[in-house]
Design brief:
Blueprint (H helix, E strand, L loop, with lengths): L1 H45 L3 H19 L17 H19 L4 H16 L7 H15 L4 H11 L5 H5 L8 H11 L5 H22 L3 H38 L1
Length: about 260
């Protein structure tokens, strides 16, 4: 009887090891597939084969859901290790972003639900991440240059992810030049914060900027356009002045070296 029980225990352990090995093989195969699907999605997106890109991106997400054994549409950053899986999280955020842009161009009710889902996922997989500012910048550039169909959801997502505190410039993102916001940030860092009155203004702006931006967003479009062009002018003037000063400094330095 003891020998029979021992044989049964050995057989049970062998079955358990076989099951574990089969599960590990399955996961290894899925991990390889997920990369294939992600690469296929990116390649198809770049070649403007949009339907195939959507299919590949969805397959990539589905594989990650299978690996985590969760229902479709429930993938969260908590299913990953931020340190070990940062590259995966970044790639997943990029996939959601491409899906958002693809579904922005569709108008059916079903497609709108998909758009909302992927935009929420993009926010979820961007907010609080080391690459959050890159995701906010992608939104800013898309809003400013691509003229999205679902304008308000994009602006709302940008407000959530944006950490620059350039409140009014962000509110006028659709009527300002693409380089205006970065130039204004440079103006703040390289000029305003160096002087006492400049720091007072920045502190005042940080306090009242959110309120002012809400009022700016409520203005008629033609007034927003004029304010946007004014900011463009200020930003361009600062950028031009900086460029001239840098060139002058470079010329003086060369002259000193030649002497």
């Amino acid at each position: 009887m003891a020998v029979k029980n021992r044989n049964l225990a050995v057989a049970r352990r062998k079955i358990e090891r076989d099951i574990e090995q089969a599960e590990e093989d399955r996961k290894r195969k899925l991990r390889a597939q997920r990369l294939e699907f992600a690469r296929a999605g990116i390649a198809n997106y770049q070649k403007r084969r949009l339907g195939e890109a959507v299919k590949a991106f969805k397959q990539y997400i589905h594989v990650l859901e299978e690996l985590n054994k969760i229902p479709p549409g429930t993938l969260l950053p908590t299913h990953f290790d931020l340190k070990k899986d940062l590259s995966e999280l970044l790639m997943l955020s990029g996939v959601y972003w491409d899906l958002v842009k693809l579904y922005d161009r569709t108008k059916s009710a079903e497609a709108r639900q998909e758009f909302d889902h992927y935009l929420n996922k993009y926010i979820t997989f961007s907010k609080g991440m080391p690459y959050q500012h890159l995701c906010a910048e992608a939104l800013r550039k898309y809003i400013a240059s691509e003229k999205p169909i679902h304008r308000e959801p994009f602006k709302s997502a940008y407000r959530i992810l944006n950490t620059s505190k350039c409140f009014i410039a962000s509110a006028l993102i659709e009527v300002t030049h693409l380089e205006t916001l970065p130039r204004l940030r440079q103006f703040r860092e390289e000029f305003l914060l160096k002087y006492y009155l400049g720091r007072i203004f920045v502190s005042w702006y940080y306090r009242w900027g959110p309120v002012l931006s809400q009022r700016v967003e409520a203005l008629p479009h033609w007034i927003q356009f004029l304010l946007g062009k004014t900011l463009d002018g200020i930003a361009f003037t600062w950028s031009l002045k900086t460029l001239v000063n840098n060139r002058s400094h470079s010329i003086r330095s060369k002259n000193k070296l030649s002497l």
